[in-house]
Every structure is written in C-alpha cells, then in structure tokens.
Design goal:
Elements: H1 2-32, H2 42-49, H3 53-59, H4 63-82, H5 92-108, H6 110-120, H7 124-150, H8 162-177, H9 183-202
Helix pairs in contact: 1-2, 4-5, 4-6, 4-7, 5-9, 6-7, 7-8, 8-9
C-alpha cells in the first residue's frame, strides 16, 4: 500500500507540474499577443493551455494562486542568475554577463513577471511574494557592495540605499523596456543597466574600468 501511495503522489506532482507548464506557456502566448493578464479569464487560459476549466480549479484556487506558484520558479532562477561568485574581484565584463543572464530570464518569463506586477496590486499573497523576491535581489547587491568595500575596491562614500535603488530601477527598466524589443535593443538595455550597476555599486569613485 505504501508503494502505491508514493507512486500516486509522484504522478500527482508530475501532473500538476505539467498543468503549470501548459498554463505558463498559454500565458506567454496570450500576453505576447498584447493581452493583459488581469483581463484574461480562467476560461481563456484553460482553453489556450488545452485543459478543461475544471482541471484549472482542480489545481489552483484562482489566477492569483497560479501566479504565486509560477513566481516561485521564476524567483529562484532570477535570484540565482543575479549572484556573482566573487563580486569583490568581478570585472565590468563579469557584471555585464550577469546582467545579460538576468535580463534574458526576465525576457523569457516576461508574461509571468508582468502577471506578477499586475496581480500584486490586488492579491496580498502575490504582493508578499513579489516583495520577498525584490528583497532577495536587493540583498544580492547589498552583499556585493559590502564584499567590494571589505576588499578595499569601493570606498565608504556609497549611500546605504544605493543597492535598493538600483535593484528597483533594474526591475522597472525590464518591465517597461523589454516587451516587443528587438535583440539589438535588448543588448542596449543590458549595456545601460551594466553601466548603472557598475557605476553605483561596483566601481570606486572616479573609476569606470575593470
């Protein structure tokens, strides 16, 4: 009996994961066509994902719970990509590679990220998760600044809120400047974000190289 229960549980998790992936791809297609996640109905999402409306509600209470679940995946990916192994010795090229990776993930998951921002305005659970994601990303930049300061690469004159400000600016820039952009425009965004992060957090006063 125990063996059957484990198998059923595994199959149930696999089924849920499959439903999540189908719904995520459905969101990406619909949002990619210009739809607003807030305006999308469960019926539209289910139909685009090729599942029954009842199947959606078998796995999720509402659209907010779907977004919260998808957000956990995206948060882990983006936070991991944002970390530099050794920020105290990182060069500007190292930082650009990291920025490009994060922007690439944001671009790939734009539908989910846009849904997060929209849903956070009225769903307390999604708002909490969104704020937690941003705190995690802020902490990445705070630690990078501290490690560069401790290593003597950066002075003590960088304002304490700088990591917070640049992290939120990064998120807003991705939200506003990625959708519908061509590859060259995305590369230009990567260059701009790298310049801002390097100048504000990574480079000492008067230094721009690395």
């Amino acid at each position: 009996m125990a063996s059957v229960t484990r198998t059923t549980g595994t199959r149930g998790k696999a089924r849920r994961s499959s439903v999540e992936e189908n719904l995520q791809r459905a969101m990406e297609r619909l949002v990619g066509k210009g739809a607003s996640f807030t305006q999308l109905s469960v019926e539209q999402l289910a139909a685009e994902a090729g599942i029954a409306r009842g199947t959606f509600y078998l796995h999720f209470r509402d659209k907010g719970e779907l977004v919260a679940k998808l957000m956990q995946r995206v948060t882990e990916e983006i936070t991991e990509a944002a970390r530099l192994d050794a920020p105290e010795t990182a060069t500007r090229d190292d930082l650009r590679a990291t920025v490009k990776a994060v922007v690439g993930l944001y671009r790939r998951h734009y539908a989910v990220m846009a849904a997060i921002v929209e849903t956070a305005a009225y769903d307390p659970q999604v708002e909490r998760l969104f704020q937690a994601m941003m705190r995690a990303l802020v902490e990445v930049n705070r630690k990078a600044l501290k490690r560069r300061r401790d290593a003597g690469v950066v002075g003590d004159d960088v304002p304490a809120l700088t990591p917070d400000v640049v992290t939120w600016a990064f998120e807003r820039a991705c939200h506003q400047l990625i959708r519908g952009r061509k590859a060259a425009q995305v590369e230009a965004l990567v260059d701009a974000l790298t310049h801002i992060l390097w100048t504000a957090v990574y480079a000492d006063a008067g230094r721009s190289g690395g």
